[in-house]
C-alpha cells in the first residue's frame, strides 16, 4: 500500500484531515455511525466508491484507531466493521459539517441518499423549539433496514431497531421520504404514486415533519460589476 500522505501540520485541524481527509474516508465513518456494517453493505450504501478504494480507506481507518473489525453473531457469522469509541466521537463533527453544507447554493438534493444519511439528518435537523409538548413514535423501513424514531420530552431519538406500538410504520426509499418530511412533496402525492407506504396514523407523520428544519441558504455568489461596453464612435 502506498505511503499515507500527510499535511505535516501541527494544528489539530491539519491532523484531523490526515485521519479522515482522504476521499470517501469521512463518508465511510458516517455510514458506521449507527452501528456495524459488513463490507458489502458499505459498498451498497456508497455506490460511487470502488472496491479497492473502500478496502484502502477501511485499512487506513483501522490503522488510525477509528474503525475495527468484529465478528457478527449467528446467524450472520461474518465480519463487519464498526467505529471505535474514539471514532464515534466524530458524530457531532459529521452532523455539524452536514448542516453547514446544507446552506450551499450548489447542494444537489437529488443525489444519492443512504438510509444512514437520512436518519442522521433527522438527528441533525431536529428543532427542539418546535417539539414543545409533541409526542410521536415511528418505525421506518428504509433500504432493507429498520429504524425507530421517537419524539418525546422536546427531544428526538433515531436509531436502528423496531419500535413498539408505533403511531405509524413507514416504508420508503430515503430520498423519497426526505422530500416528504422536509416539505418538497406532499405525503398524499408520495403515497398515491407508490413511493411511500404508511400503516397506521398517516396524520401523525405531520408531527415528524413539523419538528425538522433546514438551515437558511447561504447567499449566492454574485458577479462583479462589469464596466459598460464602450460606444462605437459615430
UniProtKB/TrEMBL annotation:
For whether the record's keyword set contains DNA-binding, the answer is yes
Coiled-coil regions listed in the entry: none
Q: Which Pfam families does the UniProt entry name for this protein?
A: Alkyl_sulf_C, HxlR
Q: Which UniProt keywords apply?
A: DNA-binding, Transcription, Transcription regulation
Annotated ranges, domain HTH hxlR-type: 11-109
Q: Does the keyword DNA-binding apply?
A: yes
Q: Sorted alphabetically, which Gene3D superfamilies does this protein's record hold?
A: SCP2 sterol-binding domain, Winged helix-like DNA-binding domain superfamily/Winged helix DNA-binding domain
Species the sequence originates in: Streptomyces polyrhachis
Tell me the classification of the organism that encodes this protein. Answer: Bacteria, Bacillati, Actinomycetota, Actinomycetes, Kitasatosporales
Recorded protein name is Winged helix-turn-helix transcriptional regulator
